[in-house]
Amino acid sequence: MILMDFYVICGSGNEGERVFDEMSDRDMVVWNVLISCYVRNGQTRNAFSLFDVMQRPENGCKSDNVTCLLLLQGSVQLCGLSFGERVHEYVKEHGYGKSVKICNSLITMYARCGCVDKATQAIRVFRGMLLKDVVTWTALITGLAINGQGRDVIEAFTEMQRRGAYPNIQMFTGVCLIGT
């Protein structure tokens, strides 16, 4: 597994794939390592293809929340809304929707994929969360800002403060995006 990761980091992705292909016992961690390698190297479509293969019953492996986080990261890199929506459906079907990290990544994905009309989906995810951390608020506020929703940014920032959350530097950057 470490060798596979090493090959991909060094730009020898084909060698990493070869190591993966030669492994007889592939657990979820091994699958996630190769998916991570694809995402890190901008090969999101390959990551999703591997995700599809991973789901086949003969492989005996189901994705976990780490897989979903990796694929959401890849969706943002690709600005691939349809990929991200597919992961969101998987998250809902498999019960990962309570994870703060997953929800934060969903908010970021919807906001960063550049579809203002889909920012409402980011807000739905946000409102459905029981626990919100500073990363949650930052994802929402930055997402609203990059989608030109200045008034909503101010309202969210005010609500965040009212609930006792403290802003970080990324959040201030998001708030500053209103004027750009």
General description of the model:
Keywords: Repeat. InterPro entries: PPR_At4g14850-like_plant, PPR_rpt, TPR-like_helical_dom_sf. This is Pentatricopeptide repeat-containing protein. It holds the Pfam family PPR_2. One of its GO terms (molecular function) is RNA binding. The chain has about 180 residues and is mainly alpha-helical. It has a domain at about 1-60. The protein contains 11 helices and no strands. α2 runs antiparallel to α3 (about 30-40), α9 runs antiparallel to α10 (about 150-160) and α9 runs parallel beside α11. It is elongated and about 55 Å long. It starts with a helix and ends with a helix. The model has no long low-confidence stretch (mean pLDDT about 85).
Describe, in short, the structure shown.
This protein has 180 residues and is mostly helical. The protein has a domain of 62 residues. 71% of the residues lie in helices and 0% in strands.
Describe the SSE topology.
Layout: H1 2-9, H2 13-22, H3 28-40, H4 44-55, H5 65-78, H6 81-94, H7 100-112, H8 119-128, H9 134-146, H10 150-162, H11 169-176
Helix pairs in contact: 1-2, 1-3, 2-3, 3-4, 3-5, 4-5, 5-6, 5-7, 6-7, 7-8, 7-9, 8-9, 9-10, 9-11
Pfam families: PPR (PF01535), PPR_2 (PF13041)
PPR repeats: 27-57, 133-167
Keywords: Repeat
**Structural class given helices, strands, pairing?**
mainly alpha
Instruction: Give the CA-based shape.
Output: elongated
User: Quaternary state, please?
Assistant: single chain
Distance between the termini: 44 Å
Record field, number of beta strands? 0
Mean pLDDT: 86
Unreliable spans: none
Q: What level of helicity do the residues show?
A: over 70%
The radius of gyration is: 18 Å
- What count of helical segments does DSSP give? 11
The sequence of SSEs as H and E is: HHHHHHHHHHH
